[in-house]
Description:
Blueprint: E1 2-6, E2 12-16, E3 19-20, H1 27-35, E4 45-49, H2 55-63, E5 68-73, H3 76-85, E6 92-96, H4 103-116, E7 119-122, H5 131-156, H6 170-182, H7 190-201
Parallel strand pairs: 4-5, 4-7, 5-6
Antiparallel strand pairs: 1-2, 2-3
Helix pairs in contact: 1-2, 4-5, 5-7, 6-7
Amino acid sequence: MIQFLVNKNGKVIPQSDNLFLCSYQRPLSEAEKWLAQFDLKQARDVLVLGGGGGYHIELLKLKYPDVFVHVFEFRSEILEHLEDKFKRTQKLALYGINTNQDSAFYKNLFQFLDSKVPEIMPFRSGWQGLEPSYEKLHSSILMREVDTLAQYLNTTNPNLEFSNSLWEEKKNFLTLKNLVLANTKTAHIDSQVLDYFGEFMK
């Protein structure tokens, strides 16, 4: 069950089983630090994993009004809160998901990833209490991006061979990153894809 508390500054903070889903004391500062991790200068679409209190989404829309923001959230109470908070916000889509998504969901998700190539923006404070579900979704997204880039590189560089075992070794990850950066046709995806690989290798 989600409770919505109000801090001393009048900010509404969601709480689940004694876990705050964004900073209780400084949600705006947390949002600033979160957004500073990403380079969105060339972004058209972003995929935010975790709604939290919505302050990170609010700041994202304030600084990048032309970027289409897609938000995935597991908790229905948080989704309802965000729907009310952003009911007049343009270029924003909220998606309620559950912990047992079927193959149709992943098919649609992968089609979305392939067509939009969004910046993936995990908001981990909003994951608290549901970390395994968010991690599973995040990993699926990362692996899709890895597979997509490997296929692209295999197509454009027929002398290269990538197998699943490639992703098990950090040195191979670094080799792939250098290949992408050295290729003028793929260098533009550095900020959109290579950061996913960094997450994947952690």
